[in-house]
Amino acid sequence: MPSRRAKRIALKALRLAISYIVLIVMAAWSVLPLYYIIMTSFSNVGTLVSLTISALIPKHITLEAYRELLTGRFIPTIKVPNFPLWVLHSIELAGATALFSVALAMLAGYALSRLDMPAKKSLATFVYIITFLPVTATTVPLYLLFARFHLLNYAGLVLAYTPGTAVFAAFLAKLSIDAIPPDYEEAAMIDGLSRFGAFVRIVFRMALPVVALTALLGFLGAYMDYATAYAFIGSNSNAWTAMLGLWYLAGLYNYASAPAYNIFAAGAVLMGIPLMALFLVSQRMMTRAYSSLAGIK
Amino acid sequence: MVTITVADSYSTSENAAFNASLAAFEQEYPWIHVEVQYGAPIGTSPYLQEAQAGKAPIVIRETSDSGGALFAAGVLVNLSQYLPPSYFSQFNPTAVEDWTLNGAVYGLPDNINYIVMFYNKKFITAPPNTTDQLIQIAEQVNKTGVWGIAYGIGDDWGYRFAAWFAGFGGQIFTTVNGKVYPALNSSAMVNALEFWYNLTYNLRVNYLAPSSGAGGVEGQLFMANKAAIIFDGPWDLMTYFKALGCNLGAAPLPVVSSTGLYAAPLIGSTGWVITTPQANGVPKSQWNATLHAALLFIEFMTNYTNEINLWNYARDIPALKSAYNYAISQLSQPTSNQTVACLNQVMKGVLEQSLHGQKFPNIPQMAYYWPSFHQYAVWYFSYRNLSAVQAAQGMESYFISQLQANGLLEPAPIAALENLMVAELPASRY
Amino acid sequence: MPRLSPKVEGFLYFLPLVVAVLFLFLYPVLYAVYISFTNMNLLHIFNYRLVGLLQYELMLRQGYLASLLINEVAWTLGSLIPMMALGFALALILNQRDLYGRSLFYALLILPWAFPGFISLLVWSGMWTDPYGFMNRYLLPFLHLPHVDLVHSVWGAWTGLIVTNLWLSFPYYMTVFYSGLQSIPSELYELADVDGAGALAKFARITLPSLKKTIAFVFITSFVFTWNNFYPIYVLTGGGPGIPSKPIASTETFIVYAYQEAFSYNNYAFAAALSIVSTAITMVLAVIVLKFTGILEGLV
User: Fold this and answer.
1) In which region does residue B156 sit, left (phi positive, over 0), alpha (psi from -120 to 50) or beta (all else)?
2) Cys-Cys link to B269, which of A200, B95, B310, C26 (CB 3.0-4.6 A)?
3) Which CATH superfamily is domain B2-112+267-331 in?
């Protein structure tokens, strides 16, 4: 009967209409502050644009902040433009952290999934719960510990960043590896491959979504960190990461000087855009990686 | 060859001056190798942490109050042991007081900073000398639809308000039986609070802005010609000058008419300190040579040439008397450049304030002044659910309870303060 | 290479993670416990001594404990529930098969999570300024909503915090739940359609049960993360606008207070005591929930 069909169509239209409205509103809300950051980076005034009266459409667009950021030489001992060098450092550090996180998480996840281990449940619970200690309590002892072991450098930073991601990723990895039938490894080991070889050649490849997600999260954590990096290598401006450099250039650490928010915004844009691109590219991976969570029965 | 590590907390513009001075120093003392840490922080905790690990830098450019906390913690060298009192007399006396704790000087000042009264010459021809004049002028300006004053006391943590507190005759600390006690609960505080309450809610000449500084609402209003007077520091000077040009004026805070005292802002000072071997990890055998090099360094950085460098490159107000006089004379030079002439006028007004300020307390207790003042200021000015008397009492009792909780005050019995609610702690614990 | 016994082999694979965690977390826990029994603060930075339970006594006597804890729970649950609800709702919307432009919307909605958080916080702090910030000047009046004043009003502070935290984190929950929804086999829904089940029945009988464990696991991990997440509060309100003498009268949570005690007042021993208490509470809560929902069985 037409009225019933019409009713179905009307409901569907309503459902879709509401969906689109919600999505559009939410998308606009998501993008709003980022729009501000971009606008601030194009302004020549050091204050946050949101305070000016006619904020939405900027009157003058200038690349002053970007130019100063990309060509500036602020530290006499560095002979090349400073900020790009610092970004390079960030990428190195974040890359190393990603690798290390993946290694630790996959090894641990494999152990949890495939291998027998003494006191498995208690150890896993312990490892998980011990990460509950807040950063207010970990900062000082970590600094003192790393100072004593001469680890106040990139190696120490990688070590400091890794467990945060690795513990969570280990559980995800475990679930993901659970879904891979062990037959492939068994076959390979019968053919003479060591367990470790089977682990690397087969499991890694099949659990790629989780590997990618762990690498991404590890990279992200190291790339965007300011506090720990400052505590460890803040005293050596030659080795600064981009975040440290950005803080310095924007005058944010010194409350007596007026901060240059436009430079800060420019740096944020330069650092944020590749990050967002990375996120978008790895959308699919993330979806697949997280779907293993739903596999908890 | 001696190496010293230097924590440089200068901004990028000040570093232009610093780098020049550094080059001159290295030329004069080739046997001293200087390792500079750029972007060093200002504050107590970062250096405390490093000191615990024995990795603090040897020389730090700090503020006098953070330096005071570090000195009290045993992290800094007592310069009075190595430099005669006549050496210190070369500097602005308030600046030296800033760097003195229990009679010992622990740092050499390079510049001083404080707030001044900025005004818009478009609305105000002559700045007020007294608070009665201030009210008069503000009322006149208000009639034209522009705020007379924009002073967001509800957002003030006590840094700016300390000036008015002093103007009404108050002081933040008092010493009783050799012990330091807060003294916020006084009629001076009540009068100062009520004065500004009156201007804000009865006379309606003051706008209680939610944020201060050039980046805050106060500055924004001032630059948009919507407020005629604000209280801010010379660190925002160039931003205001860019906006208002020759309409910008600066003058010292006025005299409080009822007391005849100047509203005396806190004169803070930044300068150079040297850390102890326990903090910086320099072995005993090398300490004498290192200390000698460090002393040479900080003496060099605060000498005439370099203070003038800082003035020229970054307009930092010199703490050295001779450099200060040079700055004044420079500002009085006739010039055909209109912009420079206007800027000089403003700077002169700024410099004049340095003659009417008060010492910035540098004792560790000062850390608790800010939150104590702030929350009661918020309740009194923004929520308006307290009387001024209650606010003053509240500030004081909170201040005392915080000091006691942190081991900075024994529960000494003083009759006048008995009726305050404070936690009792056994003295033997401390 | 000789085959190691499975138990030893398993342990060896798990070892690197355990070692890293011992370094990074066990040592600080032990250190914090030790320090909480001393009087380490500004004036006793080099020569501190053991003082027994003094710091814990002070904590109790100060009388802020209850307020701090209530604030902390309010912050955690007040953030988490809207975040998870919004994330779930968006995931449901995105999961509709006849939706166009899914990738585009997903890409835009994920941006708050992808962008460095503290930079976003600074911008939000500017946007909430009353009355010239964007929110109070344009958006809220446009929606006929009252002003939100983070600095001078208690409910304004809480609103601003929750809304900002919501913005920062909802994409994470959206992603997790969307993945979960995607992995529910469509045959289940088709079967239900054949049986004539309505949308609501399908949701209650298929969707929710399949996602139950996901929701629980995400809830626990996020609970602890949000509990320890002092950064938004620190940047936006600094713990204001009052003092934690009464619950909700300020936004001073346990962790923010601990941070201030450690780094503004250099009262390390007191901050350590606070951190230990907070960690103990979260550990107990986590163990209870883990056992109650049986997640652990499924995980290991």
Assistant:
1) beta
2) B95
3) Periplasmic binding protein-like II (3.40.190.10)
